[in-house]
Amino acid sequence: MTDQPILLQLSSRPEPYPPHVRQRMEVDAKDIIARYPQPRSALLPLLHLVQAEDGYVGGTGIDFCADQLGLTGAEVTAVATFYSMYRRVPTGDYHVGVCTNTLCAVMGGDAIYEALQQHLGVKHGETTDDGTITLEHIECNAACDYAPVIMVNWEFFDNQTPESALAIADALRAGHRVRPTRGAPLCTFRETARILAGFPDDRPGALDGAPGAPTLAGLQCATTEEEAS
Ligand code: FES
């Protein structure tokens, strides 16, 4: 038995946001929280607000959310680590997600993902040295009718090939304008996060949700068969 004290290595508290940042974020947080009957219901958009500020959800952002909502850091962490849209490490300007779920995978998603990994020199969740692209393989994005798809900051790039995906990555890294196959023009990961937090999306085409021909093909077949019978 020794009377030496037992020292526990505890991790240090994260640095809080600087006062001017916190003040700005509190205004946004108040706006978000006011949309819900219970403050804790605002946690998901608040985590997006943190990603809009930091590019990921770290200790500072977790403490901020906990303070705003009267939750514990553990409660906020439990939610932030459950959903894969919240990143735990800094993210590049463009989050490139390759769908490798069943249908996209067999239609070429696996080959696209492999080609991007080789070309960019990064693996799942990693960011290129220039801070431009974070690559991830992602689950089904409900665009199977356009398989294989990749998503850049959650905008759709349909019917891709390894060649077209590499061209998109190169254009993004070169700072060229890249247009998604449908929907609104691309914005950065942090700007996207702010939109996901519930702030207005003023991009042209952002609210156009008309289904395309591949999406309606099944319905068309069913209607034709029904009319024929
Ligand atoms: S399997 Fe890729 S979008 Fe559904």
UniProtKB/TrEMBL annotation:
Residues 209-229 are annotated as: Disordered. One of its GO terms (molecular function) is NADH dehydrogenase activity. InterPro entries: NuoE-like, NuoE_dom, NuoE_N, Thioredoxin-like_sf. It comes from the Bacteria. It comes from Nocardia camponoti. The keyword Ribonucleoprotein does not apply. This is NADH-quinone oxidoreductase subunit E. It catalyses: a quinone + NADH + 5 H(+)(in) = a quinol + NAD(+) + 4 H(+)(out). Its cofactor is [2Fe-2S] cluster. NDH-1 shuttles electrons from NADH, via FMN and iron-sulfur (Fe-S) centers, to quinones in the respiratory chain. The immediate electron acceptor for the enzyme in this species is believed to be menaquinone. Couples the redox reaction to proton translocation (for every two electrons transferred, four hydrogen ions are translocated across the cytoplasmic membrane), and thus conserves the redox energy in a proton gradient. Keywords: 2Fe-2S, Iron, Iron-sulfur, Metal-binding, NAD, Quinone, Translocase. Pfam families: 2Fe-2S_thioredx. CDD domains: TRX_Fd_NuoE. Belongs to the complex I 24 kDa subunit family.
